[in-house]
Amino acid sequence: MTRQKIVFLDRDGVINIDKHYVYKIEDFEFINNIFDTCIYFQKLGYKIIIVTNQSGIGRKYFSQNDFDKLSEWMIKEFKNKKIEILDVFFCPHTPNDNCFCRKPKPGMITQACQKYDIDLNTSWMIGDKISDIDMAFNAGIKNSILISSQYSYNIDDLKTKNIVEDIIETKNIIKA
Ligand SMILES: [Mg+2]
Ligand SMILES: [Zn+2]
Fold it and tell me: Is 117 annotated to bind ligand?
């Protein structure tokens, strides 16, 4: 058995338009090209795992049940497009909770590695915030891509050279 290579995807701003604390299906708008891009990753032999900070749960803006229902619906939408989401890991905590799973801490990747036999050397992280890139770095994933978004970053601090405007451009970077 060879170890599994994974594309880890952030959720808000990568899969769906980041409208801040999205928890309702009617507010969940898939980003253009996300399905085509995931099909491409699957063809290359990657599995897809979602890793997402969801402090809206800890802040009591919505419940874990709301999050679970939305995740179930989202996974089904992917399935309708022949895309398998292997798993969804989320951090429900607020910054004050000092947990080990809130990005940029590596806890969600650690959890994924406990559950699956993952080769971090051939895995990728795709996110739209510097904390996504930092989480990958802190977890020992060298390969990451920032999708530039509403969130600003300091290029000198960025731990990747890969910056794209649109998720579809990740195809030019992830080639094997
Ligand atoms: Mg995001
Ligand atoms: Zn957490």
Answer: no
